[in-house]
Amino acid sequence: MHPGPTAPAAPLTALLEDFSLEMTAKDVPALEQARRTLPAGTRVNITYLGNEDLPMRLAAARAVKAHGLVPVPHISARRLGSRAALEEFLAGLQDDGTGEHVFVVGGDPAHAHGPYDDALAVIRSGLLQQYGVRRVGIPGYPEGHPAIADGVLWSALRDKSAVLGGHGLTGDVITQFAFDAKPVLDWIERSREHGVEAPVRIGVPGPAGVRRLLAYAGRFGVATGASIARKYGLSLTNLMSTAGPDRFLHAFAEGYDPHRHGDVKVHFYTFGGLAATAEWVSRFRAGTSPAH
């Protein structure tokens, strides 16, 4: 007879308080199911994809708010065709009461479609606070970026943190997802040494088919293959199985030291599995996460 599941240890429980997760505008129908297991006030980041338009993005933010959750719309700097396009988006969010929190990222395009070459240019524009934004999320890359040198990444992180403070905006850092806890812990500690004091939300893949998980990892430049499977506790013999981030979260909690790492929470990347991720988090927090 197998012993029953046990509740997460205290450090892990603290990390999972005020967790956040991510969705696309196309996930709005799944939000109805997901919100049943999400605590009221949970932050839900809404991605900014090239195949979605302004009405879709605004509707997604309204749906998040309508379910008692906190929308965090993404702004993809290089996808913005003009200053007017940014203002139109921000004005729409302000009118709907969904734009107090945003996440600003450079975005996938190699070249800017308009006047904003990177996230810092959007932050420096002064438009965010003009349209009622109070909190700004910025990205962090614990395992580096395939197209950006580490020195440039650190400089950008320092600059964005400083400019946010200078503009009277609070913020947090949301990291790209990873499969190995130690590099993430080391990166957070180093970010504190660089003077970045903002809370950090560590990116964690939610439960997803292994095939999809590895595909996303490759797309985002995260190391792929057998090493991922080993670190994450996956089996490549059954690519249609699902896996939750139990192993990563436990390893992270074991190494987490609030005195060295500061304020840290968890951000789940759902990869189209919004409802499944919400259910998994609920079960894991209650100590009933299935073994994988």
Biggest sheet overview:
8 strands, parallel, barrel
Count every beta strand, where a strand is a DSSP E run of 2 or more residues.
Answer: 10
Specify Rg, calculated over alpha carbons: 18 Å
- Summarize the helix and strand pattern as letters: HEHEHEHEHHEHEHEEHHEHHEH
Helices and strands: which structural class? alpha/beta
Count of helical regions = 13
As residue ranges, the low-confidence spans are 1-6, 288-292
What is the overall pLDDT average?
87
Neighbour order of strands in the largest sheet? 1-2-3-4-5-6-7-10
Chain-wise SSE layout:
Layout: H1 10-15, E1 20-23, H2 28-34, E2 43-46, H3 54-66, E3 70-76, H4 83-96, E4 101-105, H5 119-124, H6 127-130, E5 135-140, H7 150-166, E6 170-175, H8 181-193, E7 200-205, E8 208-209, H9 210-219, H10 226-232, E9 242-243, H11 246-255, H12 258-261, E10 264-269, H13 274-285
Parallel strand pairs: 1-2, 1-10, 2-3, 3-4, 4-5, 5-6, 6-7, 7-10
Antiparallel strand pairs: 8-9
Helix pairs in contact: 2-13, 3-4, 8-11
